[in-house]
Amino acid sequence: MLAGPFQMFAEEQAEARQVLRYRVLCDEEAVGHILALRRVVQCGDEPALILRNEMSIRARGLWSDYALDTEEEMILDGRGLSRYVGVSTEDGDEVAVTIDRDGGQLMLHIKEDRVHTERIALTDIDATSEDAVSCFLRSERPQSVLRVLDLDHFDIDELQFRLLPRETLTVAGTERTTRVVAFESKKRRLTGRGWYVPDDSGFVLVREVSREKGDLNEVLLIDWEHT
Q: What is the DSSP secondary structure assignment for residue 63, as one 8-state letter?
């Protein structure tokens, strides 16, 4: 288990949290799952969101198999990302990353074959890939382009967001009205749309469909538990 903000879940289990389970599909074939935990806490005079995500992907190909396991936790407050800790293992290669906000910048410590440090000024980004959609939806704009720190690749991308008409979906057995957002990456060949439900913790992803490098990927919420 990672050391970091997720310890708050273990230490304060009496407080309300959300447990979300997703199924991951590639070209309509189930290839993995995601477990996400969310909890709002009070940090000083303002609320903060603690997140923990665990993902496991196993895909069999004609010529080779693919395996990806990730575990990450983070704190988001009124200024955006406060702290991040993550470990990923892709086909046996491990990468460990920590991010800490220090004044007006984010300090990234990335351990791959070697350890290196990067600094990103907060003025150079508008959001991270975890909270970019929430920032866009809160703006109430029909469309926007945001500079986003990608927490999968740990670089800055520009994402174009566009608001689509609301849709009603059956989410984990309950009908809910969703906000629908189309998105497109400038740096990567990635386009898609996501369906979100407003919540006390922000906006919760309930479905995402995207196309990247010819693959059609889908993330679908199958269980939403409040504890």
A: S
Cα–Cα–Cα angle for 120, 124, 125, rounded to 5 degrees: 95
Q: Is 38 helix (H, G, I), strand (E, B) or coil?
A: strand
**Cβ neighbours of residue 143 under 8 Å, at least 6 residues apart?**
160, 161, 162, 163
Query: Which residue intervals of 68-210 are DSSP H helices?
Result: 132-139
Please list, in sequence order, all residues whose beta carbon lies within 8 angstroms of the beta carbon of residue 175, skipping any fewer than 6 positions away: 168, 169
pTM for this model (two decimals): 0.90
First-to-last CA distance in the chain? Answer: 21
List, for residues 65-114, the tens digit of each pLDDT value. 899 999 999 999 999 999 999 999 999 999 999 999 999 999 999 999 88
Give the pLDDT confidence of 127-173 residue by residue, as tens digits.
999 999 999 999 999 999 999 999 999 999 999 999 999 999 999 88
For residues 204 and 4, give the distance between their C-alpha atoms in angstroms, rounded to a whole number. Answer: 23
The amino acid present at 22, given as its one-letter code, is: Y
